[in-house]
Amino acid sequence: MLILECPCCGVAGEETEFAGGGEAHLKRFGPGSSDDEFHTYLFAKENPKGVHFERWRHANGCGKWFLAARNTMTLEVYGTYSAQTTEPPQKIKDKISAKVPGWSWREFS
């Protein structure tokens, strides 16, 4: 079971207190986007074995969205951070790099 900490209100809880919202850091396309861009946004998701970045909502708490970095194989949570950021804080990247040799941040398009 995942234990997540909401960075907005500071409450830590089991994953059942939160609602998953899919992959984080995706570029969202609005009106005027091409069919290919919209198709990619909807259907071309990463499903990595290892480090993954996700959106979560504190459904049974403050109700706010946040982002989490975790390992899909070990269920280790590297950290949570504000949903208003375009990439994880450096301390989370450093924690991942220390535990997963050879890992690097991929740029999202």
Description of the molecule:
It is built from two helices and six strands, in the order βββαβββα. Strands 3-4-5-6 form a four-stranded antiparallel sheet, covered by helices on one side. A two-stranded antiparallel sheet has the order 1-2. The chain has helices at 35-43, 90-99; strands spanning 3-5, 12-14, 19-23, 51-57, 65-71, 77-82. The protein is an alpha+beta fold. 16% of the residues are buried. It has one domain (3-99): Folate-binding fold (2-Layer Sandwich), CATH 3.30.2270.
Query: Order of strands in the sheet with the most strands?
Result: 3-4-5-6
Rg calc: 15 Å
Helical run tally: 2
Helix-residue proportion = 10-25%
Describe this structure in a few short sentences.
By secondary structure, the chain is an alpha+beta fold. Helices cover 17% and strands 28% of the residues. The strands form two sheets. The chain has a four-stranded antiparallel sheet, covered by helices on one side.
Task: Identify the notable features of this structure and list them briefly.
109 residues; alpha+beta; Folate-binding fold; 4-stranded antiparallel β-sheet; two-stranded antiparallel sheet; globular; SoxD_sf; Sarcosine oxidase subunit delta; SoxD
Layout of helices and strands, plus pairs?
Elements: E1 3-5, E2 12-14, E3 19-23, H1 35-43, E4 51-57, E5 65-71, E6 77-82, H2 90-99
Antiparallel strand pairs: 1-2, 3-4, 4-5, 5-6
